[in-house]
Amino acid sequence: MTSFREKAILEAAKSVFMEKGYSGARMQKIADKANINKSMLHYYFRSKEQLFGDIIEDMTLNIVAKYSCIIDSEITVIEKFDKIIDEYTDLMVQNPYAPLFLLNEISQNNSKHINTMKAAISNSRSSNKFLKQILKEQKLGLIKSTPSNQVIFTVLSLLVFPFIANSFVKNILEIEDESYTQIILERKALIKTVLRQFLMT
Question: In the chain, how many H helices and how many E strands?
Answer without folding.
Answer: 11, 0
